[in-house]
Design brief:
The chain has a domain of 79 residues. Helices cover 77% and strands 0% of the residues. The chain is built from four helices and no strands. The longest helix is centred in the middle third of the chain and has 41 residues.
């Protein structure tokens, strides 16, 4: 019987040298950790329960509206995406051209322009 099934052990890893880039990276990580801790301490000291009691319900109401709009837009996008994708996959024709124009418009315009167009345009 041959000894081909014997396991070969890996050689030990060589210790990595402390290059200038490595030292700079560790220094930057330490800097951001100190900044994060300072931010947490500042937020803890600046916390005001009166402001939370006063404005908390308004923030909660706004959060519910925002989450409702996100859910509605995801559902509308999911419902609309299937027919548009099928029209694009069909190949040539009127429906494919319309789907291409729809996708081209929404991918080619900035999101903020679309929001203004829908918000101010549909409100008229």
């Amino acid at each position: 019987m041959t000894d081909l099934t014997a396991t070969v052990e890996r050689p030990p890893r060589l210790p990595r040298r402390w290059t200038g880039t490595r030292i700079l990276g560790h220094g930057l990580v330490a800097f951001w950790v100190v900044i994060a801790l300072a931010l947490v301490i500042w937020l803890y000291n600046a916390f005001d329960l009166d402001l939370v009691e006063r404005y908390g319900p308004k923030y909660w109401s706004g959060l519910k509206v925002t989450l409702g709009l996100v859910l509605l837009s995801v559902l509308c996008g999911a419902i609309l995406s299937v027919p548009v994708a099928l029209a694009r996959l069909r190949g040539k024709g009127v429906w494919s051209a319309l789907a291409y124009g729809y996708v081209y418009f929404f991918r080619g315009t900035p999101l903020i322009a679309q929001v203004f167009l829908i918000y101010y345009g549909l409100g008229q």
